[in-house]
Amino acid sequence: MLVSPEDIATAYRRIHRHVRRTPVMESGAGSFGLDRSVSLKLELFQHSGSFKARGAFNNLLSREVPAAGIAAASGGNHGAAVAYAARALGKRADIFVPETSSPAKIAKIRSFGANLHIEGQRYADAAEVCERHREETGAIDIHPYDAVETIAGQGTVALEWGEQVPDLDTVLVAVGGGGLISGVATWFDGKVKVVGVEPVGSCSLQAALDAGGPVDVDVESVAADSLGSKRCGDIAYAICKDRIDRVVLVGDDAIVEAQSRLWMEAQIAAEPGGATALAALSSHAYRPQPGERVGVLVCGGNVDPSTLAA
C-alpha cells in the first residue's frame, strides 16, 4: 500500500496540535557559499530535534497503544521522537539504541523519560533486542521509515513548506531509509521537483534505483547516525522510483563544510544529516538552472553545538 496526498492531509489534521509549524529562512545570495538565494525549511526546530516527531505522533494517534506501550529501535532521532510523542500522550516507551549512537541523541532520549536500552555495536543489534522485547511484552512497533503512517506524517513537512513558499521549483531532501523523501514526493506529486541527497558512503536509495529494488549497502559516513540505513524501505522505493527527479551524492567533507557554514553564518546547529541537503548545493553536486527557486530541508539538529565551534 502506497501513500496518497490525502493520507498526508489527514495526518496533518491529526498531528498539527502536537507538532511545530517550523520556520522557513530565506538566505540571500552569498550565504553558505552559494551564488543564489535558497529557502531553508528549518525542521531541526521540530519537537525532539528532527522531522521524526511528525511520523511518531501520526503513528501513536492513529493506533491503539497497549499498556506495554511502544518499543522502537533507533540510531537516535527516531528514538527521541517516539520518546517525546509517548511522553506527550502519556504512553510508555522503550527505546533501543546501539552503543555507537551519539551522546547528544542518547541524552535527548533520556530527557524525555523513555526506558533507554543500549544494545550492541550496530543498529541491527539494537533492533534484534527490541524485537524480542516486543514479542515478550506485546508492545507495538513504530517503524522509523517504512510504514504508511510514518511516511504520511513526514510528508506534512512538505504540506507546510508548500504553504509557506508557494513558488518553489525544486526541493533538496536528505535520504536515510527514505521515509522523509517519499512523504515529500507524495505531497508535491510532480508540482515541485524533489531531489534526494545521500552521502557517498550511505546511499541506499541510489543503490535501490540502480538495482531495480532495495538492496543492502555498506554504511560509512559522518552522517551515518541519521542517514545510515543499510537498505531503503520497500514503500519508500516504490514511491521514489516514480516521483523523485534524481538522487545526488555528496562526500563527508562537503557535509561537514555545510554543517560548519550553517553554524558560523546563521548559528543553525544542524547535525551532519541535517546539513546534507545543503551540501548538495555548496559542493555543486546539484546545479540549479538560472532562476530556479530552490528549497533545502534542514532535517535535524541533535548535535552538541560545542562540536561545531571553529
Task: Characterise the protein shown here.
With 310 residues, the chain is of the alpha/beta class. It has two domains: 5-50 and 147-307, Rossmann fold; 64-137, Rossmann fold (3-Layer(aba) Sandwich). 43% of the residues lie in helices and 15% in strands. The strands form two sheets. It has a six-stranded mixed beta sheet with strand order 1-2-10-7-8-9, sandwiched between helices. The chain has a four-stranded parallel beta sheet with strand order 5-4-3-6, with helices on both faces. The N and C termini lie far apart (47 Å). 55% of the residues are buried.
List the helices and strands and how they pair.
Layout: H1 5-15, E1 24-27, E2 38-42, H2 52-62, E3 70-73, H3 77-89, E4 93-97, H4 103-111, E5 115-118, H5 123-137, E6 140-141, H6 148-164, E7 170-174, H7 179-188, E8 193-199, H8 204-211, H9 224-227, H10 234-243, E9 246-250, H11 252-266, H12 272-282, E10 294-298
Parallel strand pairs: 2-10, 3-4, 3-6, 4-5, 7-8, 7-10, 8-9
Antiparallel strand pairs: 1-2
Helix pairs in contact: 1-2, 1-6, 2-3, 2-6, 3-4, 6-7, 7-10, 11-12
